[in-house]
Protein 1
Amino acid sequence: MAFDVPPGYRALKEADISAYLSGIPAVSERLGGKSADWKVREVGDGNLNFIFIIEGPAGGVVLKQALPYLRLVGESWPLPLRRAFFEYQALTTEAKVAPRHVPKVYHFDEILALNVMAYLHPHIILRKGLIRGIVYPKLADHMATFMAETLFSTSDLGQPAAAKKKQMATFCDNIELCRITEDLVFTDPWRVADGNRWTSPQLDATAVAVRTDGPWKRAAQEFKLKFLGEAQALIHGDLHSGSIMVTEDDTRAIDPEFAFYGPIGYDVGALIGNLYLAYLSQSGHEAKPGERDGYRDWILQTIEAVWTLFDQRFRALWNKAHAGDTFMPALFATGPEQAAFTFAQDAYMRRLFVDSLGFGGCKMTRRILGLAHVEDMESIADPDRRAACETRALRLARTMMVEGASFADIQAVNDAARVVQHEAAKVSA
Ligand code: SR1
Ligand code: MG
């Protein structure tokens, strides 16, 4: 297939990498020594791109190059190279307010559609840690900070309208990656679509039932409408547990190539929804029932802390670092006006909460019935056990999407997750 690539673009091979990087002082200084001594390895197991790790005597870097097609599917699914540009723009915007929670970018090459960035070591992908049952004591604190800082600062509360509109104009062009989300997250699980798959035959009846579940389908379309129309802030756009790298002490959000101006709840929901997937997959990873009870509790505590800290920090920024053209604290200066301001903040945060639950439910559903699944579930070898976990996850996802507004707070959602975990997993959603 002929792809739309700029003159000069070529997909780099391991053997090309050292020569390419030796011409970039910011990178070669970081690696140290001679380029002949640098060790290069391709490690990409993601859905979209090639990832190389390069290590020299002084340090390491990661080189991430976009291909003109979707790696997961192959050359039959063309995908624009400019996703590397959007990732660069998003990482540098995020770094202005949350530098401790993103990888530093050392070099961006628009022609080759690649970014060279910090090699996060000894970090691992959060999803893999959750499957192994590793506790990350600072995860909630760090991710709440990352989301509050990045989402507040790019919202109409955190920056003037003119600045926001200029940046929106840039990210509006991330059409194709948004389209992937629009189809795969909000539509395909609720219709017959190429690439949809599920644990079969265990979930065959469920997949059919989901396609005729009017309230669930309607909720998916309501959230799709929000995704298409609510340009609240520059969102990461793919903030699942595979886009977060962790150690016990450090947390970094990677891979914001899906970034655009969209609904804040999409990021918060991606994280919360993927943590619920981790929670409900634990019974597929225990050698004996109950072995991971303590770990399940930790995941729920983390979900509670993610929302609670995000809510606190977003409000604190609103009160102390407001720089936007709406809801200026000074407009509500006197006593009675302050009550209205507090009311407005409560209403705004409540909307974000319900949105986050709904988007989280969409993300959970697509990982069980759609094209791209998650290792939390896929690594459960016994299909009956996997289907039981997936059925519980679908049940919670539906509740989060259809009945999100009925939850008083995040503890109530955790209670619903506990109930689902303890129910027998009938093979129907
Ligand atoms: C077809 S690409 C599948 C998924 O991989 C990315 O991580 C996004 O979540 C996308 O939807
Ligand atoms: Mg990714």
Protein 2
Amino acid sequence: MILVTGGAGFIGGNFVLDWLAESNEAVINLDKLTYAGNADTLKSLAGDARHAFVHGDIGDRELVARLLEEHRPRAVVNFAAESHVDRSIHGPGDFIQTNVVGTFNLLESVRAYWSALPEAERAAFRFLHVSTDEVYGTLSADDHPFRETNAYEPNSPYSASKAASDHLVRAWHHTYGLPVLTTNCSNNYGPYHFPEKLIPLVILNALAGKPLPIYGDGQQIRDWLYVKDHCSAIRRVLQAGRLGETYNVGGWNEKANLDVVQHICSILDELRPREDGQSYFSQITYVTDRPGHDRRYAIDATKLADELGWKPTETFESGIRKTVQWYLDSQEWVQNVTSGAYRDWVNQQYGN
Ligand code: NAD
Ligand code: DAU
């Protein structure tokens, strides 16, 4: 079996669902259920003996040691993190606590477990750390997309905390020999995405008749990857990645934010036209920019393609259409996540 952390979040939840759809290998799912964790995402696994959910913190060494001893996983896949840049600007403390201190504690628990394994199991064991392209900082328009060899230049409290966690993972390999793999992925989108992030926020605000907030001039570029393609990349790296290596994961889908939002508006105009006959484009609203906003991210995923033969299956056009349709079809999930705590965040971030 494998131990997944943060498996009630957006990517971790998709990963667990896909893992159990693709194989019969059991999953222990450790998640703190912060505001971003959602047990509803895992509802379809109720009664499935291959999935055990454990409510807890990656930084709780006693709990993690017990889980490792009891279940003896052959791998740990670490998704657990604070993940939203804007929240890291309002309050960086939780990011340092989970992403840095939490990862440190998790590495120590895993190291103790791994060191005591019999030789064959120790050789086969893997710790896969899921990270982000934001650790590389920002690109200008004519820079080459991020390669694994780019220097780390994080610009936000979030990306700095992820960069720190990547460095810890690297050091635990070089110093202690822990068999680690790190993936640095670009922006994901797809089902079960918490609506504080651009794409789900825009879909839900559009349907609710609310403004679609564009930070600054809307010309910042992100490289979008459908979440299920990210999950397949992680499975592939876990299976065949070289120990101690990092792999960049991206969709070759660079888009300016304004183009993304306009694309969503066009799909909604077609699938769920507004009752007043107007286009959703009329809800687009420019708001104050994010402080320190990175201008462009783009991933060169050549290493992953050449070494491990991975490539994404969705284009942005196919993936975003599926995503919009999923939100139209998943009102119960949406209603459950847009709770009081979510409304408090929206008021803090966007005012009225
Ligand atoms: P998310 O915020 O949706 O989910 C994070 C999950 O981790 C939640 O379920 C939360 O409850 C859990 N968690 C938080 N702190 C924890 C702790 N101390 N102990 C145990 N569980 C805890 O995040 P996401 O978008 O699914 O991202 C998952 C990982 O992928 C993160 O490490 C993130 O940095 C990375 N990543 C995200 C993206 C993206 O576009 N979303 C892109 C690249 C990398
Ligand atoms: O690049 C990978 C990263 O992608 C992950 O590591 C992060 O966990 C994930 O949150 C995401 O970070 P971003 O900051 O790029 O994603 P977000 O959806 O918050 O914003 C995408 C872009 O849209 C960004 O340029 C900011 C902009 N934006 C965002 C929001 C929420 C807006 O213009 N308006 C908004 O209301």
